[in-house]
């Protein structure tokens, strides 16, 4: 049996974790800081737990250069899929709250406006003006779009872009922003920054969504589950960022949301359940309501502090490794991706990279293998031989097949080099 040090694991998630992080976490699971209890046994209401959360939040803010005082970070359960729902509930609620305040002002202000008239005007505004925009560029953004339609109904959800329309019904490209059909005053504009299944990544923040000189602009929501911590991002351009932990941050079980404070009290409060019922709009479960989770410092219900602790260890390791923080990790991630893509591109008769060059992911390198005109047998042989060399987890997602090398932060440069050499050797065999 191979030892842990012999294996390079390219699985798409849960991803590999640094061995020294796991060793520290294993010790903490038995006895945390000489308390006689393991970290998973301490109360989530304890001072120890709160310190773990606060340190992880502070280190995340430092690593990503989150603008001080402008954003709230919360740790939640439900993963990225849970955030598909949470983003809808909370951003729709914020839109309703803004419209409600505007209508009250138009009708004479607090105390003067008739409540029935306010509700009637608000209902009319919901019916004519409420829109959520989705840019669908892969399997995960499609799932997010479908969840929004399920929760709200198709009349409120705008498919602003669908990459399948420009790629023969398949994912693999990002439509030109000039073709996006963006709504006026959308409650949010959602996209997935890196599509884990399809190997598509936005090369940069879409300029068409950037705030104007006055600071106003679309309320942009991004799922960064599989490329967070791997490159610098303009945090100030987003209303909301969310990501599951199990790719680059830690172990499975927790998700993180970075929320602009203008979407939270005291700047704005979610509408009452009674008002949302009158408008025919869904009411969020409490555990998906950002203002409740933020008010309780992520401890409204029992959170897995052990998983937060692992994420905190990963962040501390990143900060110690890279004095220039995320920029240092980005340079490494880019180097690894270039090594692997160069090996694939050198043998176009054997390998076909799935996404277009303009949208290739640095995190999830998806490709097909062909030898003697046979794809299935070639890919089986590729996976079998790769496994024999301890290159593990390369099978593509079950929905699309093929090969997928996930180039997460835990993959060392030596691991990427080993895979590139194997790609070369297999092509020449």
TrEMBL record:
The keyword Ribonucleoprotein does not apply. Pfam families: Aminotran_5. Pathway: Amino-acid biosynthesis; L-serine biosynthesis; L-serine from 3-phospho-D-glycerate: step 2/3. Residues 117-385 form the Aminotransferase class V domain. Keywords: Amino-acid biosynthesis, Aminotransferase, Pyridoxal phosphate, Serine biosynthesis, Transferase. HAMAP family: SerC_aminotrans_5 (MF_00160). PANTHER family: PHOSPHOSERINE AMINOTRANSFERASE. Its EC number is 2.6.1.52. One of its GO terms (biological process) is L-serine biosynthetic process. It catalyses: O-phospho-L-serine + 2-oxoglutarate = 3-phosphooxypyruvate + L-glutamate; 4-(phosphooxy)-L-threonine + 2-oxoglutarate = (R)-3-hydroxy-2-oxo-4-phosphooxybutanoate + L-glutamate. This is phosphoserine transaminase. Belongs to the class-V pyridoxal-phosphate-dependent aminotransferase family. SerC subfamily. GO terms for molecular function: O-phospho-L-serine:2-oxoglutarate aminotransferase activity; pyridoxal phosphate binding. The keyword Transferase applies. Its cofactor is pyridoxal 5'-phosphate. One of its GO terms (cellular component) is cytoplasm. InterPro entries: Aminotrans_V_dom, Pser_aminoTfrase, PyrdxlP-dep_Trfase, PyrdxlP-dep_Trfase_major, PyrdxlP-dep_Trfase_small.
